[in-house]
Write a structure and sequence with these properties.
It is a single chain. The chain is of the alpha/beta class. The protein has one domain: Rossmann fold. Helix content is about 45%, strand content about 15%. The chain contains eleven helices and eleven strands. The strands form two sheets. The protein has an eight-stranded mixed sheet, with helices on both faces. It is globular, with a radius of gyration of 20 Å.
């Protein structure tokens, strides 16, 4: 599983961090949990990222700001993907690395942990947005009409339309840039992430109260209109209404109380993914975090604290890698 000759080294690109593989078979865009995604994901998730890199993937760590407006952050993440895409080709060509995998966005996959899974779910759900502005407005109104007031609905419609137009223009710019760099065309299948595999590790689609204590203070924030947007109900409606999520894998943990309800909802609600794409493993919510020291893994916030590499792989990384390969075969 581990090739010691490949060293995981991240370099800043745009607002993100990129570890460029010399012979990539694909790209993994990783969105971490709320705290760990902001403060050093390349450290806290080091062992998982190293294993994925050694399987032949270029790794992109996508950041996000602490915010209750997840619409805005999801839009930022989508813009960031199109900022990084031509840079991958340019950097690879300069280094003499293979860049073929970057020329079709179906070779791009997503892995998220905790709150990061909500952002991936939003990007997947946005894929269902119709191309025409009038149809998009109808889609959004149907989604939000039972949970939001008119001013909020109008704001979301305006923001989505702006984002949609920006991304369409950015795709054209990326295609021109990449052709300038290597004389090749890139295939982009959707404005958002249609056809791209995703894996959700301990997904947490929760409300304001999960981030703010006590509950009474969270209720005040919600009543003032400053709470989490979209709400868990709106996010789940988007997931259901999109009729997508057909090449998504789910990894849940037996001792995880934080993601328990979200995992149960995904498992019960979606007709897909099939059962073979759902893994329930030993461990708690923070099992994906870990650092290697010699032949041991330090499970920073999980039990056992110290674990042999082989045991850690058997209990977690092996399942993630196998799930990723099975999903990629399903997407062909």
């Amino acid at each position: 599983m581990v090739n010691a000759n490949l060293k995981l080294r991240f370099k800043p690109v745009s607002h993100s961090w990129v570890a460029l593989h010399p012979q990539p078979k694909g790209v993994i865009q990783f969105i971490a949990g709320a705290f760990f995604g902001t403060f050093g994901p390349m450290l806290f998730y080091r062992y998982l990222l190293q294993c994925l890199f050694e399987q032949g993937y270029t790794i992109i760590l996508l950041p996000f700001n602490f915010s209750f407006n997840h619409y805005v952050e999801a839009g930022f993440l989508m813009r960031e993907q199109y900022e990084i895409l031509p840079e991958l080709v340019r950097m690879a060509s300069v280094k003499g690395y293979d860049y073929e995998a970057y020329l079709n966005d179906k070779n791009f996959s997503w892995i998220g942990h905790s709150l990061g899974c909500k952002y991936i779910s939003l990007l997947e759900g946005f894929t269902a947005l119709p191309p025409e502005a009038q149809d998009r407005e109808k889609f959004i109104r149907n989604l939000l009409s039972y949970t939001s007031d008119e001013s909020h609905i109008e704001s979301v419609i305006a923001d989505i339309n702006i984002l949609f137009d920006e991304l369409q223009q950015k795709i054209i710019e990326d295609q021109k840039l990449i052709y300038t760099y290597v004389g090749r065309k890139i295939k982009i299948n959707s404005v958002f992430i249609k056809g791209q595999v995703s894996i959700l590790l301990a997904p947490d689609i929760s409300d304001t109260a999960s981030a703010i204590r006590p509950r009474s203070l969270a209720d005040i924030i919600d009543n003032l209109g400053w709470g989490v947007k979209p709400t868990p109900e709106e996010t789940k409606n988007l997931i259901k209404d999109s009729e997508l999520f057909n090449i998504m894998g789910l990894v849940c943990f037996k001792s995880d109380k934080i993601a328990k309800l979200t995992c149960e909802w995904f498992t019960k609600t979606l007709k897909k993914p099939p059962k073979k794409f759902i893994n329930t493993l030993e461990g708690g919510h923070l099992k994906p975090l870990g650092i290697q020291l010699g032949k041991y893994i330090i499970n920073l916030f999980d039990k056992p604290l110290i674990e042999l590499v082989q045991e850690r792989n058997k209990g977690f990384e092996h399942h993630v890698i196998q799930l990723l390969e099975e999903l990629k075969e399903e997407s062909i």
